[in-house]
Amino acid sequence: MDTTFKDLGFDPEILGPEEKQKRSIRKKLLSTARKAVRQVPFMEDVVASYYCAMDPATPSKVRMTLLAALAYFVLPLDTIPDFIAGIGFGDDATVLLAAIAMIRGHLREDHYQAARDALKDGDL
Known about the structure:
Order of helices and strands: HHHHHH
Structural class: mainly alpha
Helix content: 55-70%
Number of strands: 0
Largest sheet: none
Mean pLDDT: 75
């Protein structure tokens, strides 16, 4: 089964075409990951979560949880501004770690392998 953003309840008229949104998510995640890689020790889990969220085999509730946590990670405005050295990504890391802990059973080896490849190549 190939789940689309529309299946998840996202309105394409508001968000735009799905492929454009996926490219935008990848670009923002990679940009934020580069900034946060030294402050978030579980970056491989974060990127694997992205691949899990984009996997059609992942249940919708899990995908929604991951997409919400990843959105918080990439949004420029949050509780503690990311530019504050040392603690800027602290709130982001907390949200991500909580989401990953909740859905860890859905993260598969192929998600982790895709994350390792993306982090090595610098291309999500």
